[in-house]
Amino acid sequence: MRKVSLVALIGVAFAALFSPAKAATQVIDATLAPGVSMTAVPTPNISWALAMSGANTTSGGSMTVSANTPYTVTMSAEKDFLTQHNGTGYVSGGSQLSSPLTVTAARTGGTAVVPGVGLVLPASTIGGPIGTGTGLGTDTFSLTLSQPTVITDKALPTGHTYHNVLTYTASATL
Amino acid sequence: MRRRRNHLLVAATALLALAGALASPAWAQESDIPGVEITPSKFMHDLEGRDFALKIMVVNHDPVAHAMDLYITGLGHDLDGSPRFIDPAKERNAISLPVPQLVLGPGGRQELVLRGSIPAGRRSLYAAVVAEFQPPGEEATQLQVRSRVAGMFLLRGPKPWIKKVDVEDVGLLPAEEGVTVYAALENTGNVHVSPHGRVRIYKDDVLLDTVPLPGQIVIPGFARRLVGAWVPPRNLDGPVRLETDIFGPEGHGSATIYFANGDAVIPSAEITNLYAHSEDGHTEVVTLVTNTGETPLDLDLGIKASEEGAVVRTERTVADLQPGESREVIWTPELDDGLYLIKARATVDGKVLDESVTGVEVTSAFNWLLVIAILSLLANAYLLERLRRSRKARRSMVAVAEDAVSERLAA
Questions:
Q1: Which string of DSSP letters, residue by residue, matches B102-158?
Q2: ipTM more than 0.90?
Q3: Distance of CA B352 to CAs A91, A171, B168, Å?
Q4: Quick one: pLDDT band at residue B195, thresholds 50, 70, 90?
Q5: How far apart are CA B48 and CA B57, in angstroms?
Q6: Total-model pTM
Q7: Three-state DSSP state, A85
Q8: Mutation target among A43, A50, A88 for the B interface, most CBs of B within 10 A
């Protein structure tokens, strides 16, 4: 009986000796979810003086999209056409330009192995894709804004502007 | 010989290490991620029950702090599968956000747990969490810009699920090289599906080609085109039959397309604008449809307002449109208070050419007249009560005086 107890004691001692090595084992299960990141597109902080008639073009800044999954950037507008604004809100029954603003996204750089594709999109309340990519890197797009005007587009009183709000949304593809 | 090989190996390893060390700063710089991140950007899960708790992380990779608004939108898609973030939408009531705003410093990250429940009577939920931010210090000018990143949630709840698609249209679209063959499917079930398919192309009952249609996600209530590429034979002329088979779930559709000298005659229209607005209970839906093809169209534009998947109002406009011509339709549906999904669809002979969605919240006008009437009634009642009390008081004073006079007379 004593012998059995001694053997059991030695067994426990051995187990105690080896247990720290077992406790040091860590099982790591990491998940890497699909993620999409986008830089803030700058507001064109300029007084965009439109010509009375013809094409008007200005830079809309740039955006960089990073993703580890295929992505889409959509663009939609608050109004279908630039609309008369008095500085605090849209003027009820106010004027609007006759042609929609068009945004052109062109890829200018990035690290994505398969380069993303920039698109041309007229600003509208529906919106649509302005850029797509397969991800696994970054894509930088320059944005160019084009606003045609015609002679019938009405000049506005001082303090009023033709206004719109553009929303760019980056997400994974569906 | 072996020693020499070892020396070569050591030298090569050293060179690689040196190259790596030299290259690493540039690589590290290139791999830097700018902007605001939302993870996961797409989350698909089949739930055991109705309740859920979803963990998301918002990260600011920029060297400047960002203040951002967080909100929930509905999730849908257009015919090409481009996601639509429908705002306002009923889904915002199904998911609670722990915070509506977030400020993250450079490199800052915040984990958030979104709790919610698939509404009773529904088997799935399609929503998105959106983080909206702007560059710091920017002021509103003629063109204001908002930037957003979105995380999409496609959640299927308890069974029974109905997996069903209707093949609404089969056809061809112009492409840079050849044509794009498509089958437009509407998900008429109660959960999202990922069908795939094939299109067999016949000329005079002879199989010309079979085009595979890779699988795509289709959300219930929405339509999406499955597409494949095809280069038609040169000088193809006359009618060509397209037979489509869809799998997972199954569906079938067919169409006849006409060719002239190798070019397909393709009707094409686009819903370029869809805007819904409600003020004081008055709702207005404005949509613009354009014939973007090269043939005249006898176009059917249908608009539906639905609440909780049930169509409550519809509008139908038929328009003859020449190539390049547009038609604006203004619809003022009578809608009770609530959140509605507005869907516009352009069709020709049952062929779906375009579809678009938006959301609108209807709130009745605040009835100031009723409030004024109630307030005047209350005021009148108060004045009458005061008058009654003052008369009573006067009467009692007169009675006291009369008593006093009587007493004196008696004395």
A1: EEE-TT-EEEEEEEEEPPTT-SEEEEEEEEEE--TT----SEEEEEEEEEEEEEE-S
A2: no
A3: 37, 26, 7
A4: very high
A5: 24
A6: 0.76
A7: strand
A8: A43
